[in-house]
Here is the input.
Amino acid sequence: MTRDFTAPEVEFVGVAKHYGNGHTVLEAINLTIEKGEFVSIIGPSGCGKSTVLKLISGLAMPSAGTIRVDGMTPKNARETVSYIFQDATLLPWRTVRRNVALALELEGAGSGQREAKTRSLLDLVGLRAVADSYPRELSGGMKMRVSIARALATSPRLLLMDEPFAALDEMSRDHMNEELLRLHAEQKWTAVFVTHSVTEAVFLSTRIIVLASNPGRIYATLAVNLPQPRAAEQRTSPEFDALVGKISHTLREARSQ
Amino acid sequence: MKQKVKQKMITLASSLAVLAAALLLWQLILLVFRVPPYMLPSPWAVARAVAARLPSLETAFATTAVEALGGLLASIVIGVAIALVFAQSRWVRRMLYPYTLLLQTVPIVAIAPLILMWVGAGTASVTLIAFIISLAPIIANTTQGLVSVEENMVHLFLMHNASPAQLLFKLRLPHAVPSLFTGIRIASGISVIGAITGELYAGSSRVGEGGLGYSILYASAQLQTDYLFALVFAATVLGFGFFFLVMFFEWYFLHRWHESARTPEVE
Here is the structure.
């Protein structure tokens, strides 16, 4: 497969999604995400945030419009896409090491390559000490690290994340946010990140998309022009506060629509 | 650690105390009500019967054990295979599930004469009866385990272009193992009951072949009540043996990752 380097990573043209019962989840979505962007999607519950990810991954099909991922159909692009779910979705019967290796195993990587890659990923996310533990022995934050390591194992160019840190306490969440940005800076994938948290969205993103609901649609798109690379201290800067305030305000507007 | 050992000793001692009390009560009833031995033999007479007829008890025990185990193993193999078919689609389940209910509801004593007619008296018939009676819980529990995989897990596999075989062997089957063991635990108890019941109808009467069920029939006809008690005791031991065997395998396969296997139900 030759890669079109000029194609945007994700492109939605006139996308709509209806359910069988006639309920419209998403309507008239036009969206372009360029390579290397970190885009967060935020909005009231029921606005179809997660559906956007399902559509990008080809796990759901649009009712109207076209979707291109790296110039291909979502299903054909899956090889270059990884999905991180809200729950860590680890296989409880596999050790941490074998959970990380799962994606590579499914895609048919040889055992030598699998082992080397798994080892380096475990080091990358700081899980080397628990490599042979089972998921039930891990904390929520550690489980999520395993999930992230597994997603990165196939060297994706696009990472879809559906509220991955929603279940974590604030301190672990902040820490995971910093880790995620470090990985993003090192590996330069594109990210589409669904979240409920405005501060998380501002801290992570280069761009934030605010959705309104009934039917789900893009209410506003806001650029986050905070300096890169981001550091934990930026969370307390006046610019950061101003952006959080602005986006919270937009979110309230979207909700009252 | 020492505390734990002490606690176990106390548990064991109190269990033994209950046993001693039961035996004492038994003996007391015999003395007070002057029950004739052919109605209720004394514990001592039962113990003597066990010692005196150990070889035939052993044979009966082994025969029934082999039949029940054969039926149980067959029900696991066939039951898992049927569950795999059931797991293919909701449509298949709706179409075929009522027939597994049939397995559960048909009284085994009603079909035993048929099996006797078709297969003839002996080990094969009894094994078949143990198999039929054990099958339903294996099918029901394994199917449940195969289809109750979380949607996101399936999505994860699909995102990495998993083949149907990978979905089955790397996701659905391992996910179904705890439920399979629940099914096996239920089936193990009733396979013993099935084998003993089967022997009442279709057991071999040839010397050295009759199992516990056949021997129970024989002993009761001869009013050998002490031997009858010894046989009941042997049947209980067999049931316990199956139960603990299954518990051991369950622990062995699941204790590292599954919550249910951490603390056995019998402490």
Remarks:
- The longest helix of chain A spans residues 238-256.
- The mean pLDDT of chain A is 91.
